[in-house]
Amino acid sequence: MTREVLTVELRPVESADLDRFFEHQQDPEANLMAAFTAKNPADRGVFDHHWGLILRDPDITVRTIEHEGKVVGSVLVYPNEGFPEISFWTDKAYWGQGITTSAVDAFLREITQRPIRARVVTDNIGSQKVLERRGFNVVGEAEGFANARAAVVKEYIMELA
User: Where is the N-acetyltransferase domain (predicted)?
Assistant: First the structure.
């Protein structure tokens, strides 16, 4: 069985996209899967400050993910511990449809620096599968306090060589 490749568009973030990103961040299950989120995801001031820092940082490349004309998420790369690190967030309504996979594929064609890393909480199987299918392998583990879970969690450090 072959899976249909979905068409997504990656484009620079526009200010109106932030409203959609903020809405996506309100889903409790999505926050649990991401784990490392704001202490209070409903605090728009903290959200706007965080995104302002991202959008002004010349070392961060960030794109809006669009599917069928709708803003469905974001993908970005930022420097972390000497490596570029990819991170993504997709609206829960679009999970399991191949949209994140298509977006990551498109982003990895744009961002060609290797190795590139990603971090994913060990129980976030969906994101692990997206990364593994792109060729990422686990190269380490880390622990950190996750606001969304109010606990220390383990995460895999994954790398695409």
Answer: 8-161
